[in-house]
Amino acid sequence: MRWRQIVRLRLRSLFFGRAADEELDEELRYHFDREIARYMAEGMSETEARYAARRTMGGMEQRKEECRDSRGLRWLEDLLQDVKYSVRTLAKTPGFTLVAVLVLALAIGANTAVFTVVNGILLRPLPFQEADRLFLISQVPNGLWFDPGPIMVDRDYREFRRYNQSFESLAALSSAAGRKMTLTRQGEPTVLTASEVGPDFLRVLRGQPALGRAFLGDGQQDSDVVLLSHRLWMSRFGGDSKAVGKAILLDGASYTIAGVMPATFTFENADLWVRDEFRADPHNVYFIPVLGRLKPGVSPQQAQAELATFAGHMPADRDFSGKGSVTRIVPLKDLFVAGERKLLLIFAGAVGFVFLIACANFANLLLMRGAGRQPEIAVRAALGANRWRLVRQLMTESSLLSVAGATLGLLFSIPGIRALVALLPPEEIPPGVELRADMRVILFAFGLALVTGLAFGLAPALQATRRQLREGVSEGGRSVLARRERLRSGLVTVEIALALMLLTGAGLLVKSFLQMRGVNPGFRTMNLMVATVDLPKARYQTAAQMRAVDQSVLAALASVPGVKSAAAVSFLPFGHGVMGDFQIEDGRHLPEDYRVDKPEISSGYFGTMGIRILKGRGFSERDDSVSPGVVVISESVARRLWPAGDAVGKRISMEDHPNAGDWLTIVGIASDVRQEGLSDRTGAVVYQPYRQIKMPGFIERMSFIVQSESQATAAAGIRSAIRGIDKDLPTESITSMGSIVDDALRGTRSQARLLTTFSLVALLLAAIGLYGVLACSVAERTHEIGIRMAVGAGRNDIVWMIVGQTLGLTGSGVFMGILGALALTRVLAKLLFEVTPSDPVTFFAVTGMLITVALLAAFVPARRAAGVYPLEALRHD
User: Fold this and answer.
1) pLDDT tier at 606 (50, 70, 90 boundaries)?
2) What are the extents of the domains in the chain?
3) Can you tell me whether residue 225 is helix, strand or coil?
């Protein structure tokens, strides 16, 4: 029972301290009166007895302190006392408090916003049960000239299903991003993102439909069924539960709705999921992603070893190169964030620099505040406060400031998150990721604040509590002032160095963006409208049927008023299409890893796009399915393979083992086009007339291009022409060629904007820090300035003294910053276009900008120093 009494007493003293102190006073007065009575009983007078009782009991306040210490909560009482005193002290200096809190709020808010994005994309687990056990099984054949990502060959996947002992379930996917399917007879035709998945797809993810049923298991008859996403169910079916079991048309084929997934279920942002058995084709080889869930107790390393063993047992002729394959077990998370990880870490590092600069500013503010509180600290020390007690009080103040900064920073982070999401390209945010401040983000903000308050408040607290008596006039005091100024100057130098490193990175990205924006793509971008159409395989099964539709659409577009020309292409510049090699008739082999883009185009493509024919001719309407096969090559292909300039008339073939009828004659050479993107330096393209294409897979997706003075007229004309040919073809994806080029710049533009924003904030904080140090230095050197002016120094001399101090601090920071930038900007190398990480122009421009800002920050302190009156300065202490 005694421990309960102790706990009760301690809690009572903590929460009802005043009542407990009153009881303690009564108890001590009782014992004091008893002692007086005892001494009076021994014959002393009342006055003598009172003095004797005081000698016996000692000081009453000391007795009270001993009793309070015995409660065991003295440390908490002292902490609350320090907090109360700190709040009163900070309230007396609202200017300092506001500046310190704002500096920290700005830095903590920026860090919290970036951490929210990093947390949402990289750290937060996927929205699946036991997501850490979900992996992609990758067995990539050696010798491929491209990186297919984590995939398996379809035949190997079938074998591995029988061999597998590590995964409790496996499911294949059609591709990481799914494919496009056209939904018709449900309102306006619309293109949907469909993901073809194996029967055990939901079993692997442990997902269950909100309505209806999942796919039947492997081997059970369940063809032509789909699962709808909640988003599609609400938008196209009005949330009607009777939609389950109904038939819908996708690409002209009938599918039955088996179920509807819950709103929380998302995978690659698919609108629907189509069951696919993924049966091996003896005539073709397909690459497919394979998803698996590890069995309980099986580690990824064990699964990796099993996969490697399986690959080692595969016959050599099953591999593309005959040299085996590369096996990996890849966490499913990597499928969604692999491309974003490096970029987000770069931004996290950049905002971390901003935070360090803010912390240096915070420490400088505390140093300057400590310099002004020397009399107060000296008085408290003279009254008996030890150094630890003084340091603890100052650390409490810095911690309170940092917590206040974190609270305000969390508010700042809300618009900061919105700004980051607006600046980041949409493709950088994986589908289904919710960017919000959860408990992890809040703990990060306040944890960062406490670390800041303790780590960056310690040095100023130690500096302020050095016991230096008469420091204002003694030589020892001069050394204290010098030490304090060296510490402040060192912090500002670090700030300038960090700001220069950030500015350099931003400058490189801005220059890279300007370089890319100035690139000539090789085709016309003005007054061109584009619409991409996917022909449904169920209704258009042959190449002849597809060519007929394309010809009809082109004819309809040509008759639209205001349309100058129209053309068609299988995949646009900056799009994803067919790439590969070819055979040359003279038997020469192509250079190693040499690949070309292979778009199929209409005869009006070169004229509509403004691509010049440098030699020979383009395509004409005579280049059809019954005429000899022809191609047009780009200038870079001709220069690389026929440097003598005799490419026209030569023959090539797209077949690995061409027959007599497979040879295509080169009839023209076109100017180079940046087909793969603005950063594409090769421009290697081989064009074929779409009217000669016999394989439907190459022309089932075509983009129609219209040249017109009015974009609205062109868009309406494209929509009308397509509907006139087939009312079930979607006409939603109509855009301008200028928008396509602009989208190609979006990622680089966003990167430059983000890093520039961070660097400008860093520059502002560095300027504030430099200004504070110079202003404090001028205040502390007022007496010295007065002496200089009294012995003949002019105002210009004083100004140049401050300017020299500014240039000294800035020069040191610039030197350190350049060394750091030369090392760190190499991280940006893959993000740069035609700019080296050590670009001298960028370094020179950033250095000049930083020095200019530093001189502007020194203007007010220099002017104040020049305005000092010698007589008043000589009286200054």
Assistant:
1) very high
2) 2-72, 131-337, 481-520+746-877, 537-727
3) strand
